[in-house]
């Protein structure tokens, strides 16, 4: 890939293989590069490469925990190849993660509301106490 890139003439199949290798990395930078390459391949490649790029875009986005984006890609892939077992399994995993993240998100919002309410009570109590203190100080001067 690098040699072809240097000549500014990269075969889409070679680009696909390189991007595929990057999806096996644990580095986020490699996964982002894989996503970018698969997007390029989707725009310029053959129909087969476009279809496969959608699947691996979903894989790369899933590994980056970008589940909404991954779901968009896997849904597009399944609209073309609805009986692909691997894609169905990936979609189930993505849906599970989205649900789990949704529950976590609701818990965080709830915790923030409780914390915010508790903070408001504490601040309100301090302000009321300070006002009472000033009032009493004035009265007994």
Automatic annotation (TrEMBL):
Entry's transmembrane regions: 106-136
Source domain of life: Eukaryota
Annotated Gene Ontology cellular component terms: mitochondrial outer membrane; peroxisomal membrane
Main location: mitochondrion
Membrane topology note: Single-pass membrane protein
Subcellular location: Mitochondrion outer membrane
Example GO biological process: autophagy of mitochondrion
Alphabetized InterPro entries for the sequence: Fis1, Fis1_cytosol, Fis1_TPR_C, Fis1_TPR_N, TPR-like_helical_dom_sf
The entry's keywords: Membrane, Mitochondrion, Mitochondrion outer membrane, Transmembrane, Transmembrane helix
Family: Belongs to the FIS1 family.
Name of the protein in question: Tetratricopeptide repeat protein
Organism of derivation: Parasteatoda tepidariorum (Common house spider)
